[in-house]
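Re: your question about HicB-like antitoxin of toxin-antitoxin system domain-containing protein

S., sorry for the slow reply, the queue was backed up all week. Below is exactly what I fed in.
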Amino acid sequence: MKTENKVLHLPILVEQDEDNIYIVSCPVFKGCHSYGKTVEEALTNIKEVIDICIEEEKDKVSGTNRFVGFREIQVSYKPATA
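Result:
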């Protein structure tokens, strides 16, 4: 019996560090992070990591996830003094 592939729609968080490297994370899977010199490279790399996460957690992947969105909040802080 042939099983059809399911499609997951996963949220990806993209950040850029002080060295202009793009860091990407998939919050659906614990420890699912990667990076690249460009956004495209980072997204290609995170797909490989997601494949590994899905293989490791295959019994937990339901395919019924629902992406709600990300929010940005503003907080104030006192910088450390030298």
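The longest strand covers residues 13-16. The two ends are 67 Å apart (CA to CA).

Happy to talk it through on Thursday.
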